[in-house]
UniProtKB/TrEMBL annotation:
SUPFAM superfamilies: FMN-binding split barrel. This is NADH-FMN oxidoreductase RutF, flavin reductase (DIM6/NTAB) family. The keyword Protein transport does not apply. The keyword Oxidoreductase applies. One of its GO terms (molecular function) is riboflavin reductase (NADPH) activity. Belongs to the non-flavoprotein flavin reductase family.
Length: 176
């Protein structure tokens, strides 16, 4: 194996060329206090059983709550939720102050207005590099029909499609 021939900044910039959706992951810490963070490291794993994954940096203040907890919720943000994404990415603020949410059946904070929500059991996790990869088994999910997702690319949020509205035939070509 050869060492990288690029800097950490070059690697980050190259990764930024992959457009992603934006999520907020929420849970309760050991004291029962709501915690959450903005994450773009979300992916589907399997339909049977229904599995998703995401990752959290070891240095985050919420790492222990997610790594030791049994349940969390992943919210795919709608385009209107950019300010919420920025708030949950900001250190040193009360991320839940003034935010509309309700507890799930398991007490996990569920944010209102998300394009989709996946309520997960913390099935497994793997420490790799400076992150923990969490695999969640989805116990409940829901989505808002017709919601537009908030996208992130090249270090920027995209709140409007640069080409305008999509044609009706292009909106969901694989799903009828």
């Amino acid at each position: 194996m050869r060492p990288p021939d690029f800097s950490a900044l070059q690697f980050r910039d190259a990764l930024g060329m992959f457009a992603t959706g934006v999520t907020i992951v929420t849970a309760l810490d050991a004291a029962g206090t709501p915690v959450g963070l903005t994450a773009s490291s979300f992916n589907s794993v399997a339909l049977t059983p229904p599995l998703v994954l995401w990752s959290v940096a070891h240095h985050t203040t919420t790492h222990a709550a997610f790594a030791r907890g049994t349940r969390y919720a992943i919210h795919i943000l709608a385009v209107e939720q950019r300010e919420l994404a920025e708030r949950f990415a900001t250190r040193g603020v009360d991320r839940f102050a003034g935010v509309a949410w309700e507890p799930s059946a398991d007490g996990v904070p569920i944010l209102q207005g998300a394009a989709a929500v996946f309520e997960c059991f913390n099935r497994s996790q793997y420490d790799e590099g400076d992150h923990t990869i969490l695999v969640g088994q989805v116990e409940r999910c829901r989505h808002l029909a017709g919601a537009s997702p908030l996208l992130y690319h090249g270090g920027m949020f995209y709140t409007e499609h640069p080409l305008g509205s999509l044609a009706a035939t292009a909106e969901r070509p694989l799903h009828k």
